[in-house]
User: Fold this.
Amino acid sequence: MQFLDEWLVPTLETVVPKEAMTAIREAAEATPTSLWEQLVQRRILTDDQVLAAISTRFRLPLADLTMMEMKVRESVPEGVARKHNVLPLRITDSTLDAATANPFDIDAEKMLAFATGREVRLLLSSPTRIRERLEELYRGENLVSKLLGGLDTGADVQQIEDTQEDVGASADEASQKPIVRLVDMMLADGVTSRASDIHIEPIEGGVTVRYRIDGVLRQVMTVPRAAGIPLISRIKIMSGMDIADRLRPQDGRARIAINNDKVDLRVSTLPATYGEKVVIRILNQKSTILSLQTLGLFPEERAQVERLLAFKEGIILVTGPTGSGKTTTLYSALRMIQSEGVNIVTIEDPVEFRLGKHIVQVQINEKAGLTFSTALRSILRQDPDVVLVGEIRDGETAQIAVQASLTGHLVLSTLHTNDAPNSVTRLVDMGMQAYKIGAALRGVVAQRLMRRLCLSCRVLQKGPVPEPVRSYFPAERTLYEPKGCPDCTMTGYKGRFSIVEILTMSPELERLIGQGATVDMIATAARHNGMKSLFESGLRHVIEGDSSVDELLRVTDIPMEGRFGASGARPGALGIPSLYPTGVFPTIAQATAAPAGTPTPGAPPVDLTTAFELLDEGLPPAAGVEHTRGVSVLLVDDEDQLRRVMKDLLERDGYVVHEARDGIQALDQVDRVAPDIIVLDLNLPGLDGYAVLAQLRSRPTTQGIPVIVLTAKGDEDNEVRVFELGADDFLTKPFRARALSARLDAVLSRRRAG
Assistant:
């Protein structure tokens, strides 16, 4: 089947691989499609590359879309422009300049010439850019012009250029019927379009209106400046603001009814260059179902949250940037524990939803002296069972909240951090004592919102997965991508769901936090305790078909190759092989080719000559293998290549070797494999060798396991310290291969003789 722009094939076949061209043509068998758009969607070429190829071959000029004049819409009917996908740019008494993606469309040229009575000069641009600028040129224009029919615009335009006062409008102007109708239309359209926010931004020559739908802004109209400035004043009147004060930011609230459904509006203004920017947050309680079941969590994630809410005291934090759904999650949690027998009090700024029976909501009023800290002090005298603090903003609020959680209250609150482990350091930065945080904290939920693919139009992903994340997707998985249909207003997405990173406290985490551990140490212990990252949660939703790869990359960060920090993933939980629960993983290709414990090919080289001298010895197989055969050795060292060399040596001597690369994993391996002897490096990430040795000697089940300590510190004080902690032998790096074998043999012989 031919493409809609088949004329492009000879031009592009020199720059597009033959296989790619064939694949696109086969995919277009069912419905005619545009070769240009398919090449861009599949990321084979960019718009600029296609334009350069056409312009070079046919010597056609490129269009400068920034030079578009708004007056051209008066001469070119919208229907003609949209039918032929041409964008009128400039018009004079004799010529019309228009942008097109098909310079050989004779019908378009004839229609434009007939409609305008001018000579048409066609310039090149991409089809996508033309459609976007057509929206800017025509969308909403007919509707706005009807509403503004009786408005005089001439005098006001002149005044905008001359005086500062022109960035505002009087109450009389803001109360004109066309302006009132325009505001009503805009609010009703925003609510019915499922917008969470409406952005009204003054620009040079007008005011743009954008809706945030499913987390992404979309421009819906441009209003002439003579109507846009009174529009902003009308919104300020509705929300109880001072329309005469245009130099300071203001906040207000309003409540409207659309088709008898009550909707709360939160309004904020900000002085800008061309006037005041207004953002309206739409709080439509009817369209927001406050329940953990509607957040889009996986069953095990919801079960984790429910277990946290079962605590009777302590503090639970929900973290994430603005607009990540923290308040909705907290409200859903309150709905779960709401009952007649539970006294629930909230402190919020502002109160977003009215939660109803058995929940007392307190609105912060800083002008009256009612801040988070003062309100929290008063609430604690009201015998609450559960307290929701809208946000912990300062050290005083954090101090009172933690103190309340330590005295028999369950406290729920939010923080602005990137992930769950960073919440601890954020509280420390506010002046909290680490030991109090460890004792009070019950869990942290970090979350983001991902857009859900529209089920009416989602299609199988045709192109390859982007290289940075290709290794995370098993080859046999079916992935989907957005297409666009009327149900989702041509975006390909409809609705959003939460992806979460849930840190639940354990005795080990409480101990680490109390000792002032770093974020990396807390993250490592949390992953060991079962925490899955935001990336992993989103990855699982993509594999399940809920969202697309592009959306995952928009919302989360790609983990660093070979190492997953606090925001990384644990591929093993997705059926993808993983090395350890401590955060170090190979890529998929490496994991399937190499057994757990072998170093990744991409690891930085380690100079082993200063630690271990083996390769130049040319040792034959050991003669005394029989008496060591089957003896279990646990090697604990964070240098992967050194650990591998030691493992090869010991396995050649007949030992069964297990590995760990940090202290926390070492203790886990001890419980799991019960080694006969341990070779322990002192310099370990997270829990160091001293702490591991002390733990081993404090447990009845492990205090008898012999331990040989490895260290680069050969001083007497260090040697005395490890022997005091219970080490059986001490080996200083660098050491020769035979030294390690001899020490192991000697220690085991002493234990057998004893």
About this structure: The mean pLDDT is 80.
